[in-house]
Amino acid sequence: MDPAPLSSEHGGQCFRRRPAAPRRDALPDAPPQTVVPTRRELFLGYLKIGLFGFGGVAAWARRVIVEERHWLTEREYAEVLGLGQVLPGPNVGNAAVMIGRRFHGLAGALLATAGIYCAPLLILVGLCLLYDRYGQLPAVAPAMAGIAAAAAGMVIGTACKMAGKLKLAPEAIALLLLATACAAWLRLSLPLIVLVLAPVSIAASLWRAGLILRDETAR
After folding, report:
1. Which of 22, 24, 33, 50 is most buried, taking the most CB atoms under 10 A from its CB?
2. Where in this protein does the record put region Disordered (predicted)?
């Protein structure tokens, strides 16, 4: 049965109105949904990363893991990659071990590591044989220089994209710029940069989380 009309102040009639829907821009963003890969998907995903990540594995790994397959959020991937950067060894390989272990334990770590390294290893052996045979040709050196420039551009582009989506705090941005200056202009070694800035970065994160120094600062 239809609701009875309501009288207005001016003698007319008005009808019940549905409550106004909340503005779309006022709604909070939905939390990103992540997917737990099977062991087969984990191996094939890292096989794809290793097969197509020429010169810029971190860039391709982020695209596959975060954008295509949604295994991790942007922040989770940045945290894992950052920890892999601090540890000895290749950062993406370290991240593969951590991500594989997160989903499927030791078997996942082994599958992710095998997937990311088996295809590049076979291709590398083949390219080394070709380079030993044809490396002295005049066209080889310019081609290698072009590949190196493209790889550097991929790494820089990935870093900018990750930094833009993470909504970094002011102190994190300052540390990011300081690390960039130490590596690009001062030409300091990576172990030295990590040794100096990693404790500062950890302390800043703990302070922002309210775990250290905040009580003393408030006094």
Report:
1. 50
2. 1-32
